[in-house]
Specification:
Helix content: 10-25%
Oligomer: single chain
Number of helices: 18
Radius of gyration: 31 Å
Distance between the termini: 100 Å
Structural class: alpha+beta
Largest sheet: 8 strands, parallel, barrel
Mean pLDDT: 95
Length: about 725
């Protein structure tokens, strides 16, 4: 059929035509795809660089009509017999491509999806936004969708269209500010970004997908279409096993790991291990050491490795540094198979300013605050999420659920909670904006945490949330219905700072700081605490845990042994950063590896063996677990002997079915005949001593010790003990 060029462009004004040609048109479906005009169905496609285009029958493959050149820039048009059932055969200079027309598909996202996104209650965003491989009417491809309400035009770009923003402009769904497009015949593995023209007509640097489920490894920055095929899990028993509460009540000992520097392959360019290799090396090691959980520093995609993941941009994508999303899921599956839970550090506080990331995503302050007094972290040179915006809250909650639901993660440790709770965090007077009542509390963050934790505990009853919160904010681990924030555990930063400041002192001065070791019990049951000796304590010139210890080599190791055992005897769950369990001499270097060669030395092997045995004793003894969260499970046996720098703790199982006495001597002087009152008459048996020769100690032991009718510490019977120098000992009391 001969059709004039004017008929092929009927109804299209010159401004609209030039906007399309120049890649500025915000409503490409009004021009491209099939359109009724004068009783005809006219199909238009815009394919800059194509030499010819034919309209072919979708069933038979026969040519229905050749396309005419409607504009020399690459706009083609043809008359079709109907609006459906056609394909495009595109002749490029070096290839012929057969595909369906992206502009022949109707609306992609449902009105309910759009409504929930606007409300901030769409908790499956990665199945709606981003890149989803799927089939529509039997045609496979990828549906792209992105939130950019203030953009004038959004295009998806990638290898499939030569990164040309003119080729695949998207359709705007104005009710939610979401742009969408289905690109046929694409498959997982494709690289892509979004090209956005802002409200002022400026073409922004191409943006990575905020909801991408896979990304290129840094320093590359493209998003990758991830497969929607479910992972092949074998952890049903683990996921249906003990409840979150059961796990929290029992032994809870966390090995904190930076995946990229736990072990490096020196024979292969000092590269990091990938997830499969970590499954083979890290998982059995942590299991053998008796830890109950691995906690990974943030593995969400992040541009700068030196941030250790704490400045992430891909909150839905495991970093490409260590393998594919499928590889990461395999690692989690292997952890669960070995009886290990997995906790991820997760960062909803801030994000970096990289131009291809979230910063001014559509040309406006979309994810962040406009005012730098609310929206900029000067400490970290990062941007702060605007938690007053529904879509941003929904984005963050959906990210949290992605890890818990899609990847079977057992818990999230939320970073920098204090920085979110206070509007004046690290700001001077006049540099922050008070809340509506004139206060410093960030009310939006408070509500966000309550909502986040309520949703997680409702949808993921297996999962726990942990707050890294460094202030005395009340009720961090109380339920929202009781006025709390709803976390399950809080890092006890106060205990960490106090105990490290004490143990770093020369023993001759410890008597003057005795109260720093007892102060933590004043507030120990105000929250559910974990005692963290984390990565933050072994970087930036702070030295390793071993080098913090005073004295000569023997004293350093003895101090470290006594301190670790005191930590395991003290109420609170346990967390230890990698390398500390082998007394690594140097501080952590994220570009290096744990210095495993120190295990050629017996003293380091002794520390490793001690940590393994402490975990084993903790796991086997209910008396060392119950008092972590329950005050009736703890008493001081000796709290006021500052002169001798001796501390004694009594730990009880429920109903006092068993008891453990933990005695620490923090001086290099052995104490013979040290008398301590105990609650039970009979024989107390020494279960562990850090002075044992197998740990590198001198071998002073107590064995079995019978009580004597000598009152001490307000109790009618007591023990006469030998307290080795710089040691902690555990004695089990007689059965009631």
């Amino acid at each position: 059929m001969n059709v004039e060029r004017s008929e092929l462009l009927a109804g299209i004004g010159q401004d609209a035509l030039w906007a399309l040609i120049e890649g500025r048109h915000g409503d490409p479906f009004s021009i491209l795809g099939p359109h009724q005009s004068g009783g005809m169905t006219i199909v238009r496609v815009y394919l800059p660089g194509a030499e010819a285009v034919d309209l072919i029958d979708a069933t038979s493959g026969r040519v229905m009509a050749p396309f005419s050149i409607a504009h020399p820039s690459g706009l083609f048009a043809a008359v079709a017999a109907s609006r459906t059932g056609y394909r495009l055969r595109i002749t490029w200079p070096d290839a012929v491509q057969i595909t369906e027309d992206p502009y022949s598909f109707g609306l992609l996202l449902g009105e309910l999806d759009l409504h929930l996104m606007s409300e901030g209650t769409h908790y499956s965003l990665s199945r709606t936004l981003g890149a989803v491989d799927m089939s529509i009417d039997g045609i496979s491809g990828v549906r792209f969708a992105v939130w950019a309400p203030n953009a004038r035009r959004v295009s998806v770009v990638g290898d499939f269209n030569a990164w040309d923003g003119r080729r695949n402009p998207m359709r705007l769904r104005p009710s939610a500010g979401v742009w969408e497009l289905f690109v046929p015949r694409l498959a997982p593995g494709e690289r892509y970004k979004f090209e956005i023209i802002d409200a002022e007509g400026t073409c922004l640097p191409q943006k990575a997908d905020p909801v991408a489920r896979a990304s290129e490894a840094a320093p590359s920055t493209a998003s990758i279409v991830a497969s929607s095929t479910p992972f092949r899990w074998t952890d049903d028993g683990w996921m249906k096993g003990r409840s979150r509460q059961d796990r929290l009540e029992g032994a809870f000992s966390v090995y904190e790991v930076h995946a990229g520097s736990w072990l490096r392959d020196l024979k292969d360019g000092n590269r990091s291990l990938d997830w499969v290799e970590l499954s083979q090396r890290l998982v059995p090691y942590v299991s053998d050491m008796g830890f109950t959980h691995i906690e990974l520093l943030p593995i969400m995609e992040h541009p700068f490795g030196g941030s250790w993941g704490y400045q992430p941009l891909g909150l839905f994508a495991p970093t490409g540094r260590y393998g594919t999303p499928e590889d990461f899921a395999y690692f989690i599956d292997r952890c669960h198979g070995a009886g290990l839970g997995v906790i991820l550090d997760w960062v909803p506080a801030h994000f970096p300013t990289d131009v291809w990331g979230l910063a001014r995503f559509d040309g406006s302050a979309l994810y962040e605050h406009e005012d730098p007094r609310e929206g900029f972290h000067r400490d970290w040179n990062t941007l702060i999420y605007n938690l007053g915006r529904n879509e941003v809250k929904g984005f963050l909650i959906a990210s949290a659920l992605e890890w818990l639901e899609r990847y079977h993660i057992d818990g999230l440790r939320v970073d920098a909670v204090a920085s979110m709770l206070y509007r004046d965090y690290s700001r001077n007077e006049g540099e922050w904006i008070p809340n509506q009542y004139g206060g410093r509390e960030n009310l939006e963050a408070v509500e966000f945490f309550k909502h986040l934790n309520s949703i997680i505990h409702e949808r993921c009853p297996h999962a726990m949330t942990i707050a890294e919160e460094s202030t005395a904010w009340p009720g961090v681990t109380k339920p929202p219905e009781q006025g709390g924030l709803g976390f399950d555990i809080k890092w006890n930063m106060g205990w960490m700072h106090d105990s490290l400041s004490y143990i770093e002192k020369d023993p001759i001065y410890r008597s003057y700081a005795h109260g720093t070791m007892t102060f933590g019990m004043i507030y120990a049951y105000s929250e559910h605490f974990i005692l963290p000796i984390s990565h933050d304590e072994v970087v930036y010139g702070k030295g390793s845990l071993l080098t913090k210890m005073p004295g000569d080599e023997w004293k350093k190791f003895a101090n470290l042994r006594s301190y670790l055992a005191f930590m395991w005897g003290h109420p609170g769950k346990k967390l230890l950063f990698m390398g500390s369990e082998v007394a690594q001499p140097g501080e952590w270097n994220h570009d290096g590896s744990v210095t495993w060669d120190v295990l050629d030395r017996p003293q380091h092997v002794g520390i490793q063996r001690l940590v393994r045995d402490l975990n084993g004793h903790y796991a086997d003894e209910p008396a060392l677990q119950f008092g972590d969260f329950h005050p009736e499970g703890f008493e001081w046996a000796a709290a006021d002997d500052a002169v001798n720098s001796v501390l004694g703790m009594l730990r009880y199982a429920p109903d006092r079915a068993s008891s453990i006495l933990v005695m620490s001597n923090f001086t290099p002087v052995p104490r013979y005949g040290y008398r301590v009152g105990v609650p039970s008459d009979g024989v107390w048996i020494e279960r562990m001593t850090t002075d044992a020769r197998e740990y590198g100690g001198s071998g002073l032991v107590n064995g079995a010790v019978s009580t004597e009718p000598v009152p001490a510490h307000g109790r009618p019977v007591s023990l006469s003990l030998t307290l080795p120098p710089l040691s902690t000992i555990f004695l089990q009391g007689p059965s009631p």
